[in-house]
Write a structure and sequence with these properties.
CATH superfamily: q2cbj1_9rhob like domain
Radius of gyration: 18 Å
Helix content: 10-25%
CATH architecture: Sandwich
Bound molecules: 2-oxoglutaric acid
Oligomer: single chain
Structural class: alpha+beta
Distance between the termini: 42 Å
CATH topology: Jelly Rolls
Number of helices: 8
Shape: globular
Number of strands: 14
Largest sheet: 8 strands, antiparallel
Strand content: 15-25%
Number of domains: 1
Length: about 300
């Protein structure tokens, strides 16, 4: 697959699906060579887990991890920790698809890789990304770059259609943000969630307000997913400039177009993630405190 683009990477009907359901899968955004490069870069980063006794700013450890037999649940901020991921976030085919969904001015405001390893990869409880990082408008989404085939068996992402047009659900418990919805306390049919599947190199795009989660991976195949959080440049994080660290950093995070300093403000249901979680470091850590879990996680 060449990186030269002659056509739209995402079709009109696919854009309509994204707008109507709040998510869509687009195949073949990344080539087999891109995927090989990303897997090699990921191996380099996960190698840092050997010898660790606790989570770090780079690595979130799976339950069951030991310094001798490392288990990695998440790589934090891969785009700022390895040049390969920084480069892949700027691949023309990806920018072409993002432009169709969000417009020409695009900012990357975060990245992570959930490894969901064969046999033990942890579940992610139901949540809306919007509850973590509300913006001045909701032209914000997460790209899921499939580094492995994502199948019904290996803990695929699950999304509830049309939930991106609904309320923002409570993600607090006992007055603190816990990063998960209480499945016993919201009128949603979680069993109706759609499985997001595809072959390695495909990407899912889910709207920032879409309700989503995933079960643990009890299969024999890994499910590594690179998540790129992308916003239209005129959507500004309501948590303030601290979310970008500095103006210079904010500028560096632009993927395409120009940044500007005029937020577009659209009325949406917003809840702020404050007071913050009692367990920090990753969504996995915050969610361990959630009393009512939906996904049976044998690693708990
Ligand atoms: O990796 C997954 O299945 C879910 C990812 C997700 O929603 C998150 O990490 O915020």
């Amino acid at each position: 697959m060449s990186n030269r683009i002659t056509d739209n990477v995402i079709s009109g009907p696919q854009v309509d699906t994204y707008r109507e359901k709040g998510f869509v899968v687009v195949e073949d955004i990344f080539s087999a060579d891109d995927i090989e490069q990303m897997r090699a870069a990921l191996d380099e980063l996960t190698a840092c887990a050997k010898g660790l006794t606790d989570h770090t700013n780079l690595i979130d450890l799976e339950p069951g991890h030991t310094p001798e037999v490392p288990r990695v649940r998440r790589i934090k901020d891969p785009c700022n920790n390895h040049p390969v991921f920084q480069e892949m976030a700027r691949r023309p085919r990806l920018i072409n698809a993002l432009t169709a969904l969000l417009g020409p001015d695009l900012r990357l405001h975060g990245s992570k890789i959930n490894l969901k390893s064969a046999d033990h990869g942890s579940a992610v409880e139901w949540h809306q990304d919007w509850a973590f990082y509300p913006h001045t408008n909701d032209d914000v989404l997460a790209v899921g770059v499939m580094l492995d085939d994502m199948t019904p068996e290996n803990g695929p992402l699950l999304c509830l259609a049309d939930s991106h047009r609904g309320p923002t659900y409570d993600h607090h418990q006992d007055g603190h943000f816990v990063g998960a919805m209480d499945p016993t306390n919201c009128a949603l049919e979680f069993s109706q969630a759609e499985m997001i599947t595809g072959s390695a190199g495909s990407c899912s795009f889910h709207h920032v307000r879409a309700v989503h989660g995933s079960a643990s991976n009890t299969s024999t195949r890994d499910r590594r997913l690179l998540l790129l959080q992308v916003a239209a440049a005129d959507a500004w994080d309501l948590r303030g400039m601290e979310a970008y660290a500095s103006w210079e950093n904010h500028e560096k995070m632009m993927l395409a177009g120009s940044a500007g300093n005029q937020p577009r403000i659209v009325e949406t249901p917003v809840r702020l993630p404050y007071p913050g979680p009692l367990k920090t470091g990753s969504i996995y850590e915050s969610q361990t405190l959630a009393r009512n879990k939906y996904f049976a996680d044998k690693t708990d």
